[in-house]
Design a protein that fits this description.
This protein is mainly beta. It is 12% helix and 31% strand.
């Protein structure tokens, strides 16, 4: 006797995965994300984020417990008395948190914005920096000091 076998759980998880992928593909540009690069440049971590059309005052950067948080918001502005004919530039807000791969010196951190690109430089804490350990002969032990 043949019976029909359906894997409901597997089919549902595949559908959920497909839905997540489709949602990711069709997020309108500028809504909920921004282009960025986060690099380890030896003595510091450097984040560059594309934030076109935003001013310094539209961006908030904070560092707490080795987590960098970046928030940016563009508000919709229309001059007093203007009638909107078409609006595709509404209010947009994005926020992203980055767990840092090492300890950084928060007091020496800096941020700058130029031509819509935010650059955040986080110098590594001294204990987190790579060090070169020379290879050589160890000093000979003084036989009198060995008991």
């Amino acid at each position: 006797m043949l019976s029909r076998w359906l894997d409901h759980q597997g089919a549902l998880s595949m559908m959920n995965a497909l839905e997540r992928e489709m949602d990711h593909l069709f997020v309108p540009a500028g809504r909920g994300s921004f282009g960025l690069a986060f690099r380890d440049e030896g003595d510091s971590l450097v984040l560059r984020a594309d934030l076109p059309g935003l001013e310094d005052s539209d961006v908030d950067v904070s560092l707490e417990n080795d987590v960098l948080t970046l928030r940016a918001q563009r508000k919709s502005e229309a001059p007093e008395g203007a009638r909107v004919v078409r609006a595709e530039r509404g209010t947009v807000g994005v926020a992203q948190r980055f767990e840092l791969p090492c300890r950084v010196d928060g007091e020496a951190a800096s941020a700058s914005m130029k031509d819509g690109v935010l650059t955040i430089t986080l110098p590594k804490a001294k204990e987190a920096r790579a060090r070169r350990i020379p290879i050589g002969e160890r000093p000979a032990l003084d036989p009198k000091s060995v008991s």
